[in-house]
Amino acid sequence: MGQSRRSRKSKTLSTTKSTSKTTINNELIGLTNSKHGHGKIRRVLPDMDAVVKVFCVHTEPNYSLPWQRNRQYSSFSSGFVIGGRRILTNAHSVEHYTQVKLKKRGSDTKYLATVLAIGTECDIAMLTVDGDEFWEGVSAIEFGELPALQDSVTVVGYPIGGDTISVTSGVVSRIEILSYAHGCTELLGLQIDAAINSGNSGGPTFNDKGQCIGIAFQSYSHTDAENIGYVIPTPVISHFIKDFEKNGAYTGFPLLGIKWQKMENPDLRMAVGMKHDQKGVRIKRIDPTTPESEVLKPSDIILSFDGVDIANDGTVPFRHGERIGFSYLVSKKYTGDNAVITILRDSEILIVDITLSVYQYIVPAHVQGRPPYYIISGFVFIAVSDPYLIAEYGDDMEGPVKLMEKVTHSMRRSPDEEIVLVSQVLAADINVGYEDIVDTQVIAFNGRPVRNLKSLACMVEFCTDEYLKFELEYDQIAVLRTEPAKEATDDILTTHSIPSAMSDDIKEFIS
């Protein structure tokens, strides 16, 4: 219960990238009778000339063999022009990009694009194009307000099945906190019944006024469900844009570094000293590395956030007839903003002020740049990340139970703490008997705790003891004589065509 670690990537919830202020066009689509048969509703044709096709060449890291990269592949998706000579698309449309090109509607020319920012959590990326030619005859799309349930929407983009622009329509069927498959996080989202297919990623979703109310980004595929698509709404888009403009880069969405539980049971509320008219959620655990750990304590009851009362089920009022998880209030803030929290502690009401920050999980959802690694005598050490686990165990990450428990529930004890694994042992005479050690956590080295991969590499490189002793999970140990182990490393690297015993970031740290 409570704030989840992050949603896991699922086979049923998938992004829609296909692999292989501003003027409105005032032309009317048509006139439709109103609900009661009186008057007419004018539907404005969206400015589809502002919708572009995005071509990307990706070169992803090989997380299982981090000294390599995977074979490059190409994808296409959609995007659209906003003010300031900028284009928005999905983050997953340009992840691990080596080249991004854009093509305007009705054009035969592809223009090289520059990636300005990638927001992994919110699955939004911002691009631009140098030169004036691309921007000739293109006007920016205007954003609209968050739609209501049953509002009509139109999805525009370049989905699979053809080369020209495609338009599908439907209605808003749900507004709630959604699991963002690419970002592995939970933010406000729209569920619509318009078709969202591969290639629609990054395309705008319009309302009847021709205004953009969101970005298509993922769909739900299941035998019991049909025509379920998801849209990133304007509040999330606005947060991304303002964050970039304010900080000159994308910094992220703040989160509280806590685990909490619902307080729906009346006996539980009575036992913690809550009055009959008090509602809230109980803090189970707090990450000790976060600013809120200085003012909040386990067993505190959070009654309100910035003056908004929190219900016993963790929800807050949203709009008329709607409630939403209180994490929505936190995600509306920016890094460095303050928030006022009312808590109940030992039957006493306290008001505390905290500074919000982007929460760092002990197992990161994404790895920037090339993944770090360190090799000694055939032992390959890596820091655990979601991409590594996906590479090893698939999208559902059905790995060892003890490892996955840490992924889901562990909190950092220091800001730089990582879970370090022996991912594999490259077989050689020097390490005979250790070949079956796979994805096992390193607890300590020569009696000293392993805090992160860099600290382990540093301890091993400068070790002058007779033995290298690695204390592993499940009370295993691996022992090698220091000098022969270090001498054997170069031959093992040559045998497996590995260019270096360590990634560049670790090499710089040690030197």
Radius of gyration: 26 Å
Q: Total number of helical segments? A: 8
Separation, N- and C-terminal Cα atoms: 45 Å
Helix proportion of residues, in percent?
10-25%
Low-confidence parts, pLDDT < 50 over ≥5 residues? Answer: 6-11, 21-40
Mean pLDDT rating? 89
What is the makeup of the main sheet?
8 strands, antiparallel
What fraction of residues sit in β-strands? 35-45%
Total strands: the figure is: 32
- Sheet/helix structural class: mainly beta
Structure explained in plain terms:
With 511 residues, the protein is mainly β. It has 8 helices and 32 strands. It has helices at 234-247, 266-271, 327-331, 386-393, 401-409, 453-461, 482-495, 504-510; strands at residues 13-15, 18-19, 28-33, 40-44, 51-58, 73-82, 86-89, 97-103, 110-112, 114-119, 124-128, 152-157, 166-180, 185-192, 204-206, 212-222, 225-233, 258-261, 281-286, 301-305, 308-309, 315-317, 323-325, 338-345, 348-355, 373-376, 379-383, 420-425, 440-445, 448-449, 467-472, 477-481. It is flat.
Q: Summarize this, please?
A:
The protein has 511 residues and is mainly beta.
